[in-house]
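Page 42, continued from yesterday. The earlier attempt failed because a stray header line got pasted into the input along with the sequence. Redoing it now with the clean sequence only.
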Amino acid sequence: MASKNFGQSVVALAPSPAISGLSLTVSTGHGSRFSTGSLVLWPAGEPTPDNAEVVTVESISGDVLTLSARAVEGSVARAVTAGWQAAQGLTAGSWDTVAQQLAANTAAIANLTQLVGAGGSDDGIDGGTASSTYTSTGIDGGTA
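This time it went through. Structure tokens are written below.
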């Protein structure tokens, strides 16, 4: 999923049924502002836990957003109507995904560091110093 900035519009055609439908249309020409992923819907004013719903956008065709899930990330299904605001941004679920990916990458780097350091080579990672006679084995098994 490629994220986009300024993914915001107004619901032009509400889901049907309003509380469980899996498709909505945003203002003409605004579909290109969105990407798949989390979307927050709310009536006029500020989004709050008492009036907003987080949904998951599965696909986009023109100005039609197809949803794969309603009431996600602990939100409650709302009766969405035309005129509601629709916006993409960082939700709690987005932050959780970033944190999980960061943790996985950190663990992978730690494992790689242990593997390189365990060889006893003077690669500089484990506190040793590189020598001019150091031979590096490439990913494909060749030497550099």
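Notes: Helices lie at 92-118.
Reminder to self: strip header lines before submitting.
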